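Review form for a predicted model. The reviewer records the input and the model, then writes brief findings.
Reviewer: anonymous (R2)
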Amino acid sequence: MKTKVFTLILFALVGLSTTYAGKPAAELFYEKLTQSIQYPDQAVKAGIEGFVDVVFVINDEGFIVVKSTDSSAPELEKYVKEKISTIKCSGIKCIYNEHFKVRFVFKLS
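Model under review:
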């Protein structure tokens, strides 16, 4: 069974036009999120699909601090909250202490 996770950065109060190592900061940040959040095996086995909306900031140490969540599946919400809180965004200082809203969509195909 194929799985897909779509990540949509819905809202960011920041100008992410700065570049690091030749890449825009927004692209680096997006890559970090998509590499870190995969479809949880347990959800795949249970046939769980849905979305998780997360509002967060990146603190001065570069860690994501979740401010609020909303989801269509509690199992996916718990997974995303746990995983996203372990992400360290080093070297992208222009996004520290800014608010982001991201939607993760989990779809079985």
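Findings: The chain is about 25% helix and 40% strand.
Further findings: The mean pLDDT is 79.
Recommendation: see findings above.
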